[in-house]
Specification:
Chain lengths: 113, 113
């Protein structure tokens, strides 16, 4: 497809389980961003990739959060030992260059029981 | 720390009228862009308009225009001839060349017929 694709759209996990969220950016987009969005709030920056290099991971809330983009295309956000406060919508965005307009996916709604 | 502040949690406008959404920001970077994004309920975030910080001329995009006051670090969005389809949550964002991306908490716009 032409847009940013995220999967799954919805994920329910029990507290303590590990989850993996996938982002397939627009082909040719160098920059990729992950955000966490709580209900009724703005996206909070988690991490940023330029191609396969993770240049900023300052927004990751804890060492339970890990992101990778090994071939500079698809990215995966992994959350280990999930906790209830991890419940949120996780948005992925890509752009042709760092300062370009970001194209967002539909997000993954994560619910931790 | 980079911050973006939207002081109006909610705004309403009569159809065909004009409304202005406020945004202030703070960044230590000299190379940055500013954006307004629109997020309809349960739908994807999409770009409304963007402004390069080095440009003095205010950006316009059809019915959407900005008032960029660099010294005051202010970046407001004006929507002219408001339409029912403009109803959404609007986010102001600041992106730096280092990949730092910061969003405000959003303004919910209601358009009254």
């Amino acid at each position: 497809g032409a847009g940013v694709s995220q999967s799954p759209r919805y994920k329910v996990a029990k507290r303590g389980q590990d989850v993996a969220l996938r982002c397939d950016p627009i082909s040719g987009h160098v920059s990729l961003f992950w955000y966490q969005q709580a209900l009724g709030q703005g996206p909070e920056f988690l991490t940023y990739f330029q191609n396969e290099a993770q240049l900023d991971k300052s927004g990751l809330p804890s060492d339970r959060f890990f992101a990778e983009r090994p071939e500079g295309s698809v990215s995966t956000l992994k959350i280990q030992r999930t906790q209830q406060e991890d419940s949120a919508v996780y948005l992925c965005a890509s752009s042709f260059r760092t300062l370009g307009a970001q194209h967002f996916g539909d997000g993954t709604r994560l619910s931790i029981l | 720390a980079q911050t973006v502040t939207q002081s109006q949690p909610e705004m309403s406008v009569q159809e065909a009228e004009t409304v202005t959404l406020s945004c202030t920001y703070d960044t230590s970077e000299s190379d940055y862009y500013l954006f307004w994004y629109k997020q309809p309920p349960s739908r994807q975030m999409i770009l409304v308009i963007r402004q390069e910080a080095y440009k003095q001329q205010n950006a316009t995009e059809n019915r959407f225009s900005v008032n960029f006051q660099k010294a005051a670090k202010s970046f407001s969005l004006k929507i002219s001839d408001s339409q029912l389809g403009d109803a959404a949550m609007y986010f102001c964002a600041c992106n730096t060349n280092a990949g730092k991306s910061t969003f405000g908490d959003g303004t919910t716009l209601t358009v009254k017929p």
